[in-house]
Structures are given as structure tokens and as C-alpha cells.
Batch of 3 targets.
Target 1
Amino acid sequence: MNLLAFDWALLIEKLVLIAIIITISLVVAMYATYGERKVAAWMQDRVGPNRAGPFGILQPLADGMKLFFKEEIIPNSSNKFLFILGPCLAMLTAMMTSAIIPWGSELRIGDRVISLQIADINIGILYVFGVVSMGVYGIMIGGWASNNKFSLMAALRGASQVISYELAMGISLIALLMLTGSLSLKTITEQQMAPGHYWNVLYQPLGFLIFFVCALAECNRAPFDLSEAESELNMGYHQEYSSMKLGFFLFSEYINMFISSVIMATLFFGGYDIPFIDESKYNPNLMAWLGVGALMVKALIFIFVFMWIRWTLPRFRYDQLMNLGWKALIPLALINMVITAVVILKYFN
Amino acid sequence: MPLLNVLLTAAPAAASSASNYFPIGLQLLFAIGFVATMMVGTHLLGPKRRTGDKLENFASGIESHGDARQPMAIKYFLVAILFVLFDVEVIFFYPYAVNFRGLGWSGFWSVLMFVGFFAVGFFYIIKKGALQWED
């Protein structure tokens, strides 16, 4: 019965939304590569890409096309199935996390209310963690299947780094969850928008800091880019890859950077909340669009900070990285959690 | 009859909670389709001029020796095991954090005990040198 009374309009609405969101995240990832090179150039007093189109604006398209038309190489000694599976998995997990992010409030078209979130599930954050930890398989499988010593070493490093920082990331979020009492990203955003309530970063500054550092490590970004330490590993876990399979690895990294920026903006910086404005007083459709814009601006600021850090700080050594993750961030996150619990129970309950 | 009533009223509720996940399935299909299309596309578009030298593993220009899948440092394995151990403990905090205000102080003391166990295990592995990276 329920299956027959299926809401076809909903299906089409969701499909359109999925197509738009995935396209946006791909385009943002493409232009993040361009942005990265421009930011690097700016910081090093260079010009950066400026040949393809005005200001080099077509450079990412040229790079993508080049990767498409390159020869596909699968080394003889590699495990062919896993070799292809690795980049596919990396890309797949990068594309899946956007499903539970509330990109904006609601659009009203006629009497139909369209939520700008693909799926509002009540375990949102756990879903993110689940998908993110799948991402490590892409690196690990890619590195192992290549049957190259450098790749394998890079993959091992990458995998152990990602899982180590996942612990601190998980604990740092618990303090935030105590504040919100919900795992749904939509609820968390709405709480921050409520009058008299500020952005979570004001209540959880230490939690945010830990989360941010862990997000850098999870995305394999400098100063934690040990799995891509080209000066000691030739290139990294994707050394044997070419054509779009290499493109997938590089691309998924930028998508992950975008998605984690959006998640940080949602959890700690009010999501699609426009600061100092009471959204309920204005036209809801207009505010929904402006909200999407606000979230994008926050995400772009985070992406810029990611790049800024990459071109400013040198790379960590492996033991420093592990010591920071295990011996500094985990105890700090635990202490933050206990202090948050005491303060909330004592003063706000 | 009452049983039937329960079944009839329970069914839509269960369906609606499962239907929340339906768009995620859609997105998975979409993503798989995208990845598969790109992979087939790049396979068909690129040139194919295979030679034995090209298909060998790259080792900075010198000939590669032996298989890469040799025994690795045990430290990596240890990290993986410790991750599994501690991640399970972290997951136990999640239901507590969500119901934290309702449980009040009594819940807090119980969880503090759990944090204590966590900390004891943590100090044990540090003292054992499981997280010691330099020899």
C-alpha cells in the first residue's frame, strides 16, 4: 500500500536536488584546485595560472580534460580489480557525505515546500563519521593494489593517520552534542539560528579547534599530508595512477576539503544562518537563497584557511603527528568533554 | 483485532523513518553511476600504447626489486588495533551525549567512571610504549 502510494514528485525533487548538489561540489572542487594555485602564487609572490582564459579561469577545465585523455596505466604486478576499485571508492565516499548537509532552509514553490537537504536523518553526524571512515579504504586499497613500495608506505601512513585523528574528532564532537542534544545537522543549525542563541563556536571554542585540526588531518592536508610527502615518497599512495583514476584521488581530496568546510560551518558557525539578521522577518524564499549563499561564503573562508595553512606551515614528522593526535588531542578532547558536562549540569540545566 | 490495529498503525511510522534514508540510496546510485561513467569514459578516450617497461612499477628510475607486500612495521598494526578498541569506547559516549540533560548528575557520575576506565586504558598503552615512535 505504502509503496503504491509513492510520492513521485518527491522522487523527482530529490533527484534534481542530488544532481545540483553533486554538480556544485564537483565545480567547487575543480575551482578549489585553481584557487589553491592562485593562493599559493599570491603567498609566494608569483602570478599563478594565467594562460587558459582570463586570469587562467579555464585552467581547471583544461586540467580535467587532460586527465581524461591520458593513457590509462595499470602496472603488471598490481591487483587489477583493487587497483580500479581504490579511486572509485575514494570518489564515491567523497560524493556521499553531502547527502545529510542542510544547504539552506526551505523553498516554497506554490504550496510545495522543498527542503534544501537531501536527507534529514536523526543520526546525521554518525552518518558522516561512517562515510568518512570508508574513505580510508580508498587510500589503503589504492596504495596496496599498486604493489609499489612507496605507494604502500604512503597508504599505511595515510591510513594510520586518518584513523588516529578520527578518535580525537569523535570525542571533540561529544561536547558539542551535549549542548545540542541531537545528531541531526538540521536541528543543530536551527538551534544556532534561534534568537538568544549564538553560534556553537562561542560555546565550544576548544572543541572547534580540535575538530579543525582533525579535519585537516582527515583530509590529508598539509601540515598532515604525510601520505603525499613527495620529497620522501616520490608522490604518495597514488604514484602508479594515471588518467582519471589519478584525477579521482586528487579530486576526492578537494571534495572532502569542501565538505568538511561545510560541516564545520554547519556545526560551529551556524550553517546557513546569516549573522545579525532575523530570517523569519523577511521573505522566506529570498532568505533561503541568501542562507545558501551565507553557507557557501563560510565554506569558502574555511577552504581559504585550509590553503593558507598548507602554504604556511611545514609538514609534520610522522612521530610528531602521532604524538599530537594521540597524546595531545585525545586527552584534551576528553577534558573538554568533562568540563562541558559539568558546566552544563551546574549552570544550564 | 487489537494486534492487527497495532500492525496497521505501526507500519506507516516504520515506513516513514526508513523513507528518510531513501534519498541517500538515490544519491548512492547517482554517485555509482557517475563514477562508473567517468571510469569507462577515461578508459575509452585515452590512448593505449602498452610496453613492458611502462607497465613496470615506478621506483625512481631504477629497476624495482621483489614484491612490495613485505612485512611492515608492527606499529601500524598496533595503531589499527588501538583505534578499533578506543573507537568502540568513543561510540558509547554518543548515546550518552544525546540524552545527557535528561540523565542529569547520576548519569554524569556513571559516565565519569567510564571516562576513568578509558583513561586507565589510555595511560596503560602509553606506559607500555605502544605510542612510542622513535626507537
Note: The first helix of chain B runs from residue 2 to 19.
Target 2
Amino acid sequence: MAVTSGYLGSEKAHTDHPEEEHDPRESLMYDPLPRGVMNDMVMESMHTTSWKFWVVLGILAFLVATCFFYAWGYMIAKGLGVAGVMRPSYWGVFLVNTVFWIGISHAGTFISAILRVMKAEFRRPFTRAAELMTTFGLIQAGASIFMHLGRVWLAYWMFPIPNERQLWPNFHSPLMWDLLAITTYVLGSTMYLFLPLIPDLAMARDRSTGWRKTFYRILALGFRGTEGEWRHLTTAMNIFAFAIIPVMFSVHTIVSWDFAMAMRPGWSSTVFGPYFVLGALHSGMGAVAVVLVIMRSTMKHMDYFIRKEHFDGLGKLMMVVSFAYAYFFFNDYIVQWYGGDRWTDTLLHWLEEGPMAWMFFQMVGFNIVIPFLTLWNKRVRTTPWLLAIIGLLINVGMYWERYIIVPVTLSINRMPFTWRLYEPRIEIFLTIGTFSMFLLFYMIASRLIPLIPVWEVQEGQMVHTLRKVGKAQVPTVSEFE
Amino acid sequence: MSNLSVDLNRVGAKGALAEEAEGKWGMVIDQDICTGCQACVAACAMENNLPFVMEEDAAYGRSLQWIRIERFWEGEYPEVRTTPYQPMLCQQCGSAPCEPVCPVFASVHSPSQELNLQVYNRCIGTRYCANNCPYQVRQFNYRDYHIEPFHANEVNGELVFTLHNQFNPDVTVRRRGIMEKCTFCIQRIHKAEDKAKSEGREVEDGEFTTACAQACPTNAIVFGLLDNPESLVSQLSHHEHGFRHLDELNTLPRITYLKEG
């Protein structure tokens, strides 16, 4: 396994900056535990629940039952009149939620696929947590799309199902591309979540009894950990890791085309594709930070797996993404403004002076100003609660961004007679419902499947070793073949 | 089945049927003689089974009107001047932005009538067509308005929908969750065509007209055959005061407006 070895940091750097010298054992990779101990820690973190967990779970289940299922059923029975959509904002919070949840789901793919392909070592303990966000976020995005339909019970007409009238879906429609892209992404990311889960499920199977053993036995697909099985699994994961990256980029680009392909002032912008992808990563990174902080503070043994170095790395990523986001943000708005189209000009003035100006400026503040002002500081990056607050603010800002793009931009069109401001009605409850469902799924999953990819951490710890060179302890890392 | 096949040569880049000709049916609206009396709005509602939506929804931008009278003001108070009334209805675009975006082909083009059709049965309510319509003339059924209690009288504790008696039997009553829009009174077009066919001739200009044109007391709305150079609508559409709304978008609208005559 160990083929080459190289130094992570040179001794010279350490002697030049003695105040920065730190114990390499602060890093998870150089602080190994025996495999049995680590497996038991992860199992224990799954089995330990306090009464608070059940209270929160109960509240969320209640919210899902009322705000998601009851509210949606009510809306199906009564029609979209109970929602806030109207002329000219025919699309409202449902589409905002769709774009927002797809954005959240991008973090998982980014962290687990791109960072895995790039061999970024700090990703190891939280790839699973991010991948779960992908799958559960996409469930909410899909639900929000169906909520938005006027006749949701006929939604299957969008699928190319052979029928006696030879009616086929319209592949010219961006909504059709959207459906295909999201379906591909759901399937791909679910499989990609499942593949690295197999060894951990097998580990859990060997350490459980009763119904849990049956549950894990079925899901682990008889994985025993032989050399051949590992080889197949690694090959499959490599294929998926590389294949899911273009899917991830295409999905949010296609979501942005729902807007960019339309003839609306403020929408028909050619930069929307990369702008949406970066926006998705921005909110996704923020959400990962929030989830990691909650995991670390509520679940047992998580402070061993998730350390300052991980928050530090995540904070750096958040900062880089916010730089890139700012680039696309200003590109989008400045080019549109410079174009001088009459309706776009009206729209931009309305955005900064109209009744929703507070939202516009909060968006700029939360997405660009706050990350710029705070994340350069290592102390901020390594303080979990601060990072969680910044992540939360980024998500609020990104939600506002989508809100401005969908219903607020729709308020201004080429027919001034129809200008009117959208106000959400039952959408508020359904939004609470989707958020509760996401958290509920996450909480249930945190007690059913190992949130820490144990084998990945162990693999990382095997290749990172501290070697004695003279008097110094030198961290070394070997590479896989 | 041959009716369903699409002539690929006529399919434009966006999949819409872009027509080179002027179009078959057309309309001319003279804004200078429009008095804004809303008779066309009422006549359209009667003809096409449009329900009342009541104050709350109407004030919130959900009024179901296939034709609306837009009015604007110019200048600051007290030097306010009203501009001519602007009746706005579906422009029956030759290259319609609403058509390519529908994922289920509910918004389609009729090659024989050269009109935009909305297939109510097929619509699943994504409302993309309405977003993409630069004229904002597509209307969504937010509720089942025609069976809402406000549409009825209460007689002996039971709701009696007397207004259902005046439904036009030639036009579908739309349910909630679907999009609808002006059809150029396609039921009248079909009736005239059937009559002409049984008499073995072509439809003539002025044989019938749409409900809005019929109701207009000042004849500000003129409807007829655009492809007949002798027709009034064809001659008026080439009038020097004529213009088309949002012509720069190249949607090829079939309605010409006359102003400042």
C-alpha cells in the first residue's frame, strides 16, 4: 500500500515560526485509535439518545404532519388559490424552495466527490454527513416542484410514458430538461451515498442484534471485506465520483435555465448557469458547517472525529466559494445594468429602491460582506459556533437571493399594468414543512446509519504516520496506488 | 393520425411553429376610439364561461379576464393626463414564447387556424407559459371559481348556481389548476367553418366576429381574415398609425393597435 512518502511540512518552516508550531496529534489523521475502539465509538454515537432527541423528533414529526402533509393536502383539495401565486408572479416560494434545496444538495456532491477525487484529506470524517444532505435535500426539492404544479395528480404526464394518443413530453421545454436532470441527480447521488456506506453497514451489522441486524444485513449486501470486494467497491466509487461531478454541474445549470431561457427582464442572463452553481455551493457549504456543528455538539464521540482542522478547512472553502460567488453576482448584475435594457433598468431600480430592497441588501451583506469580513480570520474559522452562525447567515442570504430571482423579479415585466408584489400565503407553512422533513430525515438517519465513514477515517489514519527523524516527529503520508 | 404529424421544415429553433405569412385570423384595435367601457370584457366572460373571482382575488391579480382594459396616466399630479385605453388580450403570436416552454404540449400551435391553442385537458399547471408570455395575458384557474359558494344563491339552505344556466355549451368550463387564455372565440370560427363547408364555400370575412368585437359600441375592435387583402382588418393592419406591442421581441403578434390618429 505504502509506495512513496513525503513530508507535509518542512522543519524549517517550524523553526521560523515557533508560535505556529502545533502538536501534529491535534489532527485526526495523526491521532489514530484502534479500529475496534473507533467502531465502538461510532456504534455508541448511533445508539445514544437523550430525551431531548425524542422531544425534537416529536416536534419535527408534528410539523411534518401538519405543515407538510396536511397543508399540501389542503392545497391540493382547494387549488392553488390558497397559495400566493398570482399574475405576474406565477412562480413563488415553491420554486424558491426547489432551487434552495437543490443548492443545499450540491454541498454533499462537492465535498464527497470533488474533494475525494482531489484527495483532500480533511474531507474524510464528514463526507457522509454531506452526502446525506444531498439525498434529503433533493427529496425536498422534488416535493417542492410537485407542490408548485396546478394539477399535481397528473404530474406523470411529464414522463415519457407510451400512451394511446401518442402524446410525448415536450423536450424543447426547460422544465423537461429540469425533470430529467434532477431525476438523474437523485438516482446518481443516492447510489453514490450508498456505495461508501456499504463497509460501514457491514461493520454495523457485525455489531448489532435484533431488527437492526436484519436491517443492516439487507443493506450491507453481504459485504465481508475481502480483497476482491474492496477492489470492486473502490472501482465503483471511483466511477461514481467522477461521473457525478458533471451531473452536479449540469443539474444546477439546467435549473438556472428554467429562468435564463425565459424572456423575462432580469432572467435572460447568460451567466445564470455558473452563477447558480456557485450559489448552490455557497449555501451548501454553509449548511454543512451548521450540520457539523450540531452533530458535534449533540452526538457522542463526535468531538474526536470532527475537529478544529475540519472547521478550518471548511471555513477556507466557504471563503473561496464566497469570492467566486461575488464574482458571478457582480458579473450578473453589472452586465445587465450596463446593457441598459429599459425593463431590466426598471427592475434593477426597483430592486434597490422598492419594498424588497431590504432583502436585496441583506443578500449582499450575508452572502458577500460577512464571509469576506470574518472568514479570513483563523480564530473565527476554528470557532464552531461562529462558523455555524456564518453558515446560517449565508443560507438566509442565499434563500433571499432565490426569492429575489423568482417572485420579486417576476413582479416587473414588460406590461406595467400588471406589476404587483407577491406575498407568500400557505407557502410559509409548506416551507416550514420541507425544512422540518429534512431535519426529521436527518435525525432519523443519524440513529440508523453511521454518520462518520469509519472505514474512510481508518484508511486515512493508516497512510498518515508520524516518523521519528532524528529528534523530530515528522508527519508523513503515503499514497495509495 | 396525419393531422398530428409535424412538418419539420416549419419547426423553428425553439420548436415553435414560426409562421412566415401574416397569419390567418387577425384583429385591429383602435385605441383612439376605445372608450374603456369594458363591454368587451363582459361579453368575453359571457361567451367563454369565465367565472367571477370576487373582490379579494381580483384585487390580488387573479381576475379571470381574457381581455383587459389597461389604462395609464402620464405626468405628475396635478398635470395628469390619461393615455388612450389599451385593451390587452392574447396576441395569437406567430412565434409564441408560451409554446416551447410547456413540458406537456398543452400550449400548442394550430397549423390550420394559425392560432395558439391551450389544451385544457393536457395542462398540468406548471405556469411556465404565463411567465414567458411578454404580454401577460394568460390566466390561471387558482380555484374552482364556478362552484365557489359566492357564485350561487342560497335558496332554502341549498346553494343554487343560477349562473350555470347561462354557460355557453360550446365552451369548456375549466377546472382549477389549469391555464387558459383568449382563443379568438375559436368556437365561433369552427361554427362558421362548418357552415361554410356544408354550403361548399370558403369562410368569408365579416361572416362572424368575436364576442369582444361584437360587443364594442364604437367598433374599436375589428376582427377578420388577415390573409384576405380585401378585408377590413387586413387593410387597417397596414394603416400608418398601426403598431404591434413588443414588436422587438419578434413574437409576430396578430393584433395591430392604432393610436394617435
Note: The two ends of chain A are 7 Å apart (CA to CA).
Target 3
Amino acid sequence: MSRRLIVVLLVMLVLVGAMGLKTVVTAHSDGSVLIAGNGGGGPVPPSPMNGGGGPVPPSPSPVPPTPWK
Amino acid sequence: MLGPFTYCTWLACSVLEAGVVVCAVKRGAFRRYLPLNLWMILELLSGVFRFYVLYSFGLQSSEYYYFYYYSEALTTIGLYFALSSLYAHVLEELKAKAYVRTGAFLLLLGTAVFSYLIVRQSADRMTTLFVVELSQNLYFVGLVLTYLLWGAILKLRETRTRLIQFVLSLGVLFSLFAANYAMRNLYPNLQWLWGSLPQLFDCFLPLAWCYTFLKIPEEARLMPARLAVAPR
């Protein structure tokens, strides 16, 4: 039981450490995305994180009027 | 943006990724390091399909945009599991395989929940933002895990050279990307340089792993603890 609790504690510590590090690193960034490697190569498209660049998927079709009105 | 340099590094990276799998099969280490090899195959397939999508739809197309970021998330999850398998190798004498598996699952779940909490306000593009946020958060988790693994290797006096080589090359890769990111924010005027370097960095890991499989036998041993503490 105690070993399982240690695993949970370690997981939480790693998560907190990693997210803290991310907050520090990306606090002054230009909004570009930091990713591990380039997942097989190829040119990087515009980052979707800074609100621009990427295309927006089509919005869902309009909702039809309810039949009971 | 799409020049001979991009195509050359892309091709070299794909050839090296295929080379890692071929070298592992040749040395009879494919099954022993199965997650690492599966991750390399995933990277290779991702690169090939990316090229197909880029060639068919173009760089500015939404098809390439979505395919790039979704495949990136998949390969990052693959990298995460490859890293977890290295933990299992290092801690196998402690018979902690079940705990490593539980810990890896919990950490992935926690990272996914954290990523969701960050992007849940953006209802219109939530899936895409979630995928990108998850990739980025897994990068930082991977970075911390790699350094912790190196600490564990030193502490447990791990001597298997192949394993040490795998972990060190992963650490160098993470550090190179972090350094490039920092330099890009420090010197934004040199965008052309910081944009080109990651394509070179991509070739480093498969090259290092090819070398490891080819030149370092499974029985080779090293004492990394001696590197950390210099006796006087």
C-alpha cells in the first residue's frame, strides 16, 4: 500500500515540477509551441497557441427550430 | 520555408529512423527494446504520411495543419511510453514494473487533465488546442522524467552501456530543443536559424540510437557513477 502511495506522490511531484517548469519557460515566449522533436520531420505550420495562423474548423450547422413552438 | 535543406533533413531523419529499426533487428534487440522501436516506426510513418499530405494539399492547407499537430501528439505519446519502458529497464532489479506502469498511466492521465483545464475555455477549437497543449505538456514531463532517470541511473549504479546511451541521447535531445526555444525568445531576429536547427536536431536521436544498436553490444558495461563523482 505504501509503495502505491509513493508512486502517486512521485507522479504528483513530477507533474507539478514539469508544469512549473513550463510556466517559467513559456512565460516570456512569443506564443510558439515547444514540442519534443518534430515527430517525423517536415515544416512546422503556424502555431495555434497565439490565436492566429491556423485555420478554424467549420462551425456546426445552424440548429433547426424546435417543432413544438 | 520549403527548401532543399528542409527536404534533405527530412529525408535523412526518415532514413535514420528506419535505420534504427533495421539495426535493432540485425542485432536481435527489436523485442527487448520494443517500445523504442515502435516509437521509431511511428515517427517514420508520421514523416511519410506528412509528406504525402504536404504534397497533396500544400503547406498552408488545413489538412496539413491538422495532420501535423495530431501526428505530433501521437508521436509525443509514443515517446512518453518509450521513456517509460526505459524506466522499466533501469528499475527491473527492484521488480517495480507494475509500479512504473501505474505511475506512467497516472502521469499521462494527470497531464491530459491539466491540458484540458488549460484549454477548456476555447470551445470553438478545443480539440486542436488540447492536442497541442498535451504535446507541449508531455514534452516538459518527458524532460523532467529524463533527468530523473539519469539521476536514478547514477544512484543505482546502472552499468549497461546501451541503456545509458539511450537515456543520455534522449536527455541531449530534450536539452537541445529547450536551448533552441530559449535562444529563439532571446534573439527573435535570428528566426531563420532557430527555425532550421530543430530539423537538424531531429536527426540526432535516430543517429545516436543507430550507433548504439550497431556498435555497443548488450553485454557492454560502463560505470557512470565514476563520471559524476571524481575521487581525490
Note: The CA atoms of residues 9 and 27 of chain A lie 27 Å apart.
